[in-house]
């Protein structure tokens, strides 16, 4: 499977591309198209081209830029997705899956149908750390990829943004997969966790059983 890479205000692009390609090769992914952007119009044009041609797009860089040039600010306008402030006061896309980074800016994952946009910092070691674990497992599930090499167990699924602050998120240790964000209109659909689905099934089954019991008792009166 092929994917596309967009560098935005990125440094050391060769090192970053090598780091990303090395990780993606473990699951048979290959970067076939690379684009470069230094301003909002160039990034929007490159993103429009990539969305038309690929299901998987990586955007590297722009996570340390000023708010007006920040990659999330530009994607918010381009995809009409609301912004919020993260724990450090940086702009973050509302509803995006978060790739927590202990050495720099967090990465993000946007998903719409079969397409996904992964936003990463422009530092090769951080790219390797953020993509080697949970992200690869997520891509394998999403696109049915075969693991060419045994992957390390995921260190935790992507953390969902919460209405509570980051400290409460850490205390509750919330874990989940990326939510769905529509490319146009900014609609966000959250996937129900497996436990919630099972609970709903049990409630539905209990309701049906209760209805049958009442009907049965009612028929005995006649």
Any overview of this molecule?
By secondary structure, this protein is of the alpha/beta class. It contains seven helices and ten strands. The protein has helices at 13-24, 40-53, 71-79, 124-132, 134-143, 166-172, 194-220; strands at residues 2-8, 30-37, 56-60, 83-85, 91-93, 97-99, 107-112, 115-120, 180-181, 188-189. The strands form three sheets. A six-stranded mixed beta sheet has the order 2-1-3-8-7-6, sandwiched between helices. Helix 1 (13-24) runs parallel beside helix 4 (124-132). The longest helix has 27 residues, at 194-220. The chain starts with a strand and ends with a helix. The model is unreliable at 159-192 and 212-222 (pLDDT under 50).
Briefly, what is this?
This protein is an alpha/beta fold. The protein contains seven helices and ten strands.
């Amino acid at each position: 499977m092929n994917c596309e890479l967009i560098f935005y205000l990125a440094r050391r692009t060769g090192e970053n591309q090598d780091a990303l390609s090395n990780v993606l090769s473990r699951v048979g992914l290959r970067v076939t198209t690379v684009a470069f952007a230094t301003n909002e119009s160039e990034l929007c044009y490159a993103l429009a081209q990539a969305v038309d041609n690929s299901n998987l797009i990586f955007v590297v860089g722009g996570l340390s830029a000023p708010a007006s040039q920040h990659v999330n600010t530009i994607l918010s306008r381009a995809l009409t997705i609301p912004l919020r402030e993260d724990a450090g006061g940086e702009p973050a896309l509302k509803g995006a899956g978060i790739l927590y980074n202990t050495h720099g800016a967090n990465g993000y994952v946007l998903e719409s149908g079969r397409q996904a946009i992964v936003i990463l910092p422009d530092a090769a070691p951080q790219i390797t750390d953020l993509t080697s674990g949970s992200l690869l497992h997520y891509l394998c599930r999403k696109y049915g990829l075969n693991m060419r090499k045994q992957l390390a167990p995921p260190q935790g699924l992507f953390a969902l943004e919460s209405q509570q602050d980051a400290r409460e998120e850490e205390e509750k240790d919330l874990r989940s997969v990326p939510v769905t964000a529509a490319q146009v209109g900014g609609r966000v659909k959250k996937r129900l966790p497996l436990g919630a689905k099972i609970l709903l099934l049990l409630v539905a089954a209990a309701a049906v059983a209760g209805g049958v019991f009442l009907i049965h008792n009612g028929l005995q009166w006649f």
